Amino acid sequence: MKTVTGLFDNYDDAADAVGELEATGVPHSNISIVANNSDDWYEANRSEAAEDAGSGAGIGAVIGGAGGLLTGLGVMAIPGVGPVVAAGWLAATAAGAVAGAVAGGAAGGIIGGLTESGVPERDAHVYAEGVRRGGTLVTAKVDDELVPNAEEILGQSRSVDLAERRRMYEADGWTGFDVNAGEYAPKDVDRDGGRAINRP
C-alpha cells in the first residue's frame, strides 16, 4: 500500500479527483480531503453531520459515509490552518489531535499523518501550507496495483506542481509550515487557482 497525494487550488478539481479515485476502486475509507474554508464557501451546505465533525464528536460516523467520501464532509478548525472542510482518515487524525488539545497537535496530525503514511516530511509541510493558503489536499492510501492510476489522477493538469509551489513559498521566505503563523484572511486566500502555478 502506498500513499498518493495531490494539492489543488480549486475545490471542484479536488472533488473530481476524489470521484475518479473512488471510480477506480479506491475505497472511500482510504481517501481523505481537506479544503480551506476561511471564506465560509461551504457554510451554505453545512449539515448536522458537519456540525458533529466540526466539534470532533462523531467524526468516525461522518467520515466515509454511504454514498462516497464527499457525502461525509464536516467543518472543523485546525490551528495554524484555520477552518477547513474535511473528510477521511487524515481529517480523523486532525480531529483527534484537536480533541486531544495537544499543543500544535492538529498540525502534527496533518503532517504527522502524512509522514507516518510515507509522504516525505518536506512535502507534508508544503501540503499543509497549501491548505492554509486556500488549497485543497486529496490523499489516498492505495493498493500497489492501483498506484499508477491514483498517481495519474492526483498528478493531473489541474493539480499543483509541488516543486514549483515550494519554490514560490521559499522565495517569500517560507521555511516550513508553522502552526503559530496565523490563519490567512479570506482576502488572502485564492480559491480559484489564479496563482498561475498550476501545471500547463
From TrEMBL:
Instruction: Give me the ranges of the annotated region Disordered.
Output: 180-200
Lineage, top-rank taxon, reads: Bacteria
The secretion signal range is none
Q: Which residues cross the membrane?
A: none
Bias (Basic and acidic residues): 185-194
Which parts of the sequence belong to the General stress protein 17M-like domain? 6-70
**What InterPro entries would the database entry show?**
GSP17M-like_dom, Low_temp-induced_all0457
The UniProt entry's coiled-coil ranges are none
Identify the species of origin.
Mesorhizobium salmacidum
Q: What is this protein called?
A: General stress protein 17M-like domain-containing protein
One of the Pfam families matching this protein, by short name? YflT
